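Blinded run. Sample ID left blank on purpose so nobody reads anything into the name before looking at the predicted structure. Input follows.
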Amino acid sequence: MSFLLQGGTELILEQARHEDSTKFTAQGRDHDNGSGTTGFIDCPDDAAWADNSISGFHRNDDELCGWLRRGVDSPMILDASGKALAGSIARLEKVRLGGHEQWIMLRGYSTDKPVLLYLSGGPGQSDLPFVRVLLDDLTQNFVVVGWDQRGTGKSYSALDPTETLTLDQAVSDTIALTNYLRQRFDEKKIYLLGESWGSTFGVLAVQSQPELYYAWIGSGQMVSQRETDRRLYQDVLTLAAVTGDASLSAKMRAYGEPPYKDMPYANAFVLGQYDRLSKPYRPPQSYIKRGTEANLGPWGMFDSEYNLVEKVNVLRGLIDMFSVMYPQLQAIDFRQTVKQLEVPVYMLDGAAELPARRDAGQHPAPCVVPFSTQQSYLARRTTLRHICVHGCRHSDCLAQPKGHVQQKKCPDGSHSSNERPGDTG
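Blinded prediction complete.
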């Protein structure tokens, strides 16, 4: 997710390459009031992370284990009196998807509302705290579900074996989680919202089983990662030439044209140039205020949804999962393989999106209809609504969720009362 990584590129570049995955098991215990789940970390004798990740502590240190076992939760949704809102849900849950235990976060003012599953960007980004803080408005009208995908954040221990961590498995896990949520909340269908990388496997899930979804909502919609990377590479070289930055030019040429051999470090370096490539824009003040007041820290690592080990694994997952998954995306081109989707489609298009994510030769201006070559692959054959989000670049749904996702109404009439989509604004 680009806005989360800006300013943190150097930190990524300085990380040592990961050798052994963290070993721990996570267990959950429901609060008596049903408003949350508290997770605990076990400290087995073979906890290799204690030697590898936290220098100066021995893995059998009882005090350390007690500290690591501290409970974590998702804060309750409160009523006007400061008590847990009756009928609401705010909990962390562990689910088994594709043979691996993974974590989800459920938040909503009422469990009778329709379900909205959010697929985070990356690959490798854990967005649980950002879903809670920045999509809070949507919880009044939806049960919003955040998901730490396999190999990310709270689900980092499911990274291995990496040979089974494939794009097909990510799609399969999405469908499995969709069916779990449908059964859990007695819903015929759910809404699916994907941001950046999440918009890649989200489209594939909808293409595979459209009958499970009321609508697809793409934010920072990806169509061809390889083409986007190629354009970014050329744009950075052009920037270097225009500004006379010889060192930048030399570094990019040393990386070579995408797909990069030095992944994810080359990708992170290019990402660090985004502000120089982008035209000035002003994010919504409400977006800035929420993020500042929540004090989530880099990548959300200060948040209450993570215990100590998981805070470390937020960053480790970003590096490791990206390294495993991103090379698998190089052959994707939805312009060729996804000619239509059999559900209503809503595209959130940031007005300040980078030109490299559009076909500058045909549609250099932002928020054009139809979409550029990068984003018009569905325009002719699918019921599609294009929503220009001003004050945003790539992470549109998190910057201005209220009034965009919340107001979706399907043109095909699937929001009829017998299908229980709920109050959509």
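Unblinding after everyone has recorded impressions. Residues 1-61, 359-375, 403-425 have pLDDT under 50 and may be disordered.
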